[in-house]
Amino acid sequence: MKLSLNEQNAERVIEALLFTSSEAISIKELKKNLPTNIDIESVIEKLQKHYETRGINLKRVGKSIVLRTAKDLDHLFVKKKVKKKSLSRAARETLAIIAYHQPVTKLEIEEIRGVSVGSGTIDVLMDLEWIKFGRRKLSPGRPVTFLTTDIFLDYFDLSSTKDLPGGKELRELGLSVRKLNQD
């Protein structure tokens, strides 16, 4: 299939912006640099296909895209490899609950975990920029909710939280899955 001149130019613009950026670029930001008649999703899909067998891959991170080294070549960059972050069990459980049940309040996290959540646990996840504040719930006291961020998705190499393992997969790993009691 032959690309129109506008689509070819759009690919070039997207590539240039991604190559010069060290961080993911939002699709909204990309649209600002392209003609309005361009179907940006189809251009991104074409670029993903083009790069899937290359040394770099175009990855989705939430509502953004970024260029990353192909997984099979990351051994070449041992010095630049991301340092694994060590989290307490409470922080890991809290992060998992937020990822699977977002938007979720602190009280709901405590209901699921069965113990109270220390403010330090939330602070650690906020400092890592893996979670953020969401909207307030329309319930008494209007509690704040928590959501995962694109930085969380990028760190765990996920396009969206839909890529997280499902309940069946977790049970196969021997993990128990308790659902939030929705009213």
Protein described:
The protein has 183 residues and is of the alpha+beta class. The chain folds into two domains: 5-80, Arc Repressor Mutant, subunit A (Orthogonal Bundle); 89-172, Orthogonal Bundle (Arc Repressor Mutant, subunit A), CATH 1.10.10.10. Helices cover 42% and strands 15% of the residues. The chain contains eight helices and six strands. The strands form two sheets. The protein has a three-stranded antiparallel sheet. It has a three-stranded antiparallel sheet with strand order 4-6-5. Strand 5 and strand 6 (144-148) form a beta hairpin. Helix 1 packs across helix 3 and helix 4 crosses helix 6 (119-127). The protein starts with a helix and ends in an 11-residue tail after the last helix. The model is unreliable at 179-183 (pLDDT under 50).
Output the keywords.
183 residues; alpha+beta; Arc Repressor Mutant, subunit A; 2 domains; 3-stranded antiparallel beta sheet
Question: How large is the share of residues in beta strands?
Answer: 5-15%
Helicity, in percent?
40-55%
Strand order of the biggest β-sheet? 1-3-2
Question: Total strand count, please?
Answer: 6
Shape, please? Answer: globular
End-to-end separation in angstroms reads 51 Å
Number of domains: 2
The major sheet is characterized as: 3 strands, antiparallel
The parts where pLDDT drops under 50 for at least 5 residues are 179-183
The CATH topology of the largest domain is: Arc Repressor Mutant, subunit A
Number of helical runs? 8
Q: What is the name of the CATH class of the largest domain? A: Mainly Alpha
CATH architecture of the largest domain: Orthogonal Bundle
- What is the ordering of alpha helices and beta strands? HEHHEEHEHHEEHH
